[in-house]
Task: structure prediction
Amino acid sequence: MLMNRRRRELEKAKRQAMRAAGRFNAELMDFIRPHVQPGITTGRLDELVREYTLDHGHVPACLNYQGFPKSCCTSVNEVICHGIPGPYVLKEGDIVNVDLTTIVQGWHGDQSETFLIGEVSAEARDLVQCAFDCLWAAIDVLKPNCRVADIGAAVVQIAHQRGYSVVRDYVGHGVGRRFHQDPTISHVPTPEGRRQRLAPGVTFTIEPMINAGVCDGVQDARDGWTVRTRDGRLSAQFEHTILMGNEGPEVLTLTRGGPQRGGWIE
Ligand code: MF3
Ligand code: CO
Ligand code: CO
Result:
């Protein structure tokens, strides 16, 4: 009895801690959003992310994570994920994914958005919209104890219908005290995902990467991080951290100023 009570208290504290981490991370996204404009370097965005995080007493999770050199990922155009901020100047027509992860009192919040820089091509816009719609379609199928593979099924259905491919080599993940933990959240249905269920209390990300062309990526041999599409075509992504509640999912990284569920990206 006492054991059960203690366990429930710990579980409640964990949920509160993850809500706080998600909330701060979302505020960081709201802070950075107006800076994502033509003419700014991705390196300057990274400095702003680091300063805001440290000023609020928190820790950028990416910095030094497995040797990653910066405080966030900035993935431009054909970069699927893990782009390293640097001297690149964002220009009209680019799309850029900004992926932010913060450690708040030992717990992680993780989210990303793809931004349109000025006027972009209709092709780029449609792809970014698709990545956004895939994320929300996946969130909308979540129910307590649903299968992980339900997520991939929802993503694939929308992406393939619109003629895009879904990245397989990079996945969503459990998130909590650790940045990346179980379960693996594939954005395509897999045998493992059909066996695995999302029980109340689990915290995880959904972060579909959607490509205009082939799904395969190639890692940059020089920096060891940047992953580009093999065919050089565009890639877009959105990510949220989610808590599976007792009644249904809670999206912990919802922002005030960003694109809202069911909405248009701009
Ligand atoms: N934020 C990414 C994710 O969604 C991981 C970035 S790891 C880093 O899982 F080392 F590149 F920062
Ligand atoms: Co992320
Ligand atoms: Co993630």
